[in-house]
Automatic annotation (TrEMBL):
Residues 92-168 form the Baseplate protein J-like barrel domain. PANTHER family: PHAGE-LIKE ELEMENT PBSX PROTEIN XKDT, PROTEIN JAYE-RELATED. It comes from Pseudomonas solani. Residues 278-352 form the Baseplate J-like C-terminal domain. It comes from the Bacteria. Belongs to the Mu gp47/PBSX XkdT family. Pfam families: Baseplate_J, Baseplate_J_C, Baseplate_J_M. Residues 194-268 form the Baseplate J-like central domain. This is Baseplate J/gp47 family protein.
Length: 354
């Protein structure tokens, strides 16, 4: 049976009643009497003790009730801490005169707050060439999709002032980890303690390796006997499929921790299988549409995994529980979404049918 902490006034009334019961003829119902003042002060002290005990029990375990100090205490015990923001990086294509040099450290920008620098020197041997750039500020704001136009901050003779983000995009930027992210990793450490290189260990290492990684899956023998394949998802990014920067960081991190004899370890992004939805919705308002899309995106994050697909019943449920929805018909897909080994069902698009 749960214990309910009494309100301050309830505690005061209990103490007043006790005093008057055990000291017949006295008055403790008002603060203008000595006994009333004692009852008032004692109730305040007891209420403070109740609040302190409530704080302690909420922070006994690092669950959803715990405040930051409670979660951090458990994190320090396991050697975990908030993951810092990471810098986005990726290739851009520049054009110019053959033989022209673009120096390392050349600055380009998308907006005033999105500045990138080249990480190596590029000598054009043709009309165009690709060079790696890295964001100057950490966080998701540094990620750019392929095809985005960025400009040189200062002109370089023989080089066009506009560069284009190449295939794969500028990726890998992630914000500082928040309390909920640290809480989830602490919980995973509690539920999946290290086992000397089990599949769960590989998943844990992937989740620790880069702040962008929100989910990871490990499997055995896909690339041959004794091999381990680790796949990643970055659900906080517009595209959950990780880029090369994230994959490389996870590979390096896992290589430092895997058992010495386990050399056939492959860290790869899953192959995206976009799911196109067709939905008839009542009411067909912008707010309800946004709620349906949010629920479907959340469904992908909760249920989709490489080779796992999505159940049509879960898709219909996600549409039905959207805030403001009163009726709907899911016209596509019409059956369970299936995926091959390594494929991940990702949110593609929604066509709203009137």
């Amino acid at each position: 049976m749960a214990f309910t902490i009494p309100a301050l006034e309830e505690t005061r009334e209990d103490i007043r009643a006790d005093i008057e019961t055990w000291l017949p003829g006295t008055q403790a119902r008002t603060r203008r009497t000595a006994l009333g003042v004692i009852a008032f002060a004692q109730a305040g002290g007891i209420n403070g003790l109740h609040a302190h005990l409530d704080y302690l029990q909420r922070n006994f375990l690092p669950d959803e009730q715990a405040d930051a100090p409670g979660v951090e205490r458990w994190a320090r015990r396991y050697g975990l801490w908030y993951r810092p923001a990471t810098l986005a990086s990726g290739p851009v294509t520049v054009t110019g005169s053959i033989g022209t040099t673009l120096p390392a450290g050349t600055a380009l920008q998308y907006t005033q707050d999105q500045v990138y620098v080249t990480t190596s020197e590029l000598v054009l041997v043709g009309a165009s060439g690709a060079v790696e750039v890295e964001a100057q500020a950490g966080g998701q704001v540094g990620n750019l999709a392929a095809g985005t136009r960025i400009s040189l901050v200062s002109p370089v003779a023989g080089i066009s002032s506009v560069a284009i983000v190449a295939a794969g995009g500028i990726t890998g930027g992630a914000d500082d980890e928040n309390l909920n992210g640290l809480r989830q990793r602490v919980f995973r450490r509690m539920s999946e303690p290290p086992k000397g290189g089990s599949l769960a260990d590989y998943e844990t290492w992937a989740l620790e390796a880069h702040a962008s990684v929100t989910r990871a899956w490990a499997s055995e023998h896909e690339q041959g006997a004794g091999s381990v394949t680790v796949r990643l998802a970055c659900d906080n990014n517009p595209d959950p499929i990780p880029g090369a920067a994230v994959v490389d960081a996870c590979k390096a991190y896992i290589d430092q921790r895997r058992p010495a004899g386990r050399r056939s370890v492959y860290v790869v992004p899953p192959v995206a299988k976009p799911v196109a939805y067709r939905v008839r919705l009542v009411p067909n308002t912008a707010q309800v549409k946004a709620a349906v899309e949010a629920e479907l995106r959340d469904l992908h994050r909760r249920d989709a995994e490489p080779g796992g697909g999505l159940l049509i019943s879960r898709i219909r449920e996600a549409v039905s529980i959207a805030a403001g929805e009163s009726d709907n018909t899911v016209l596509a897909p019409t059956a369970n979404v299936t995926t091959a080994t390594g494929e991940l069902a990702v949110f593609g698009s929604i066509e709203w049918v009137v």
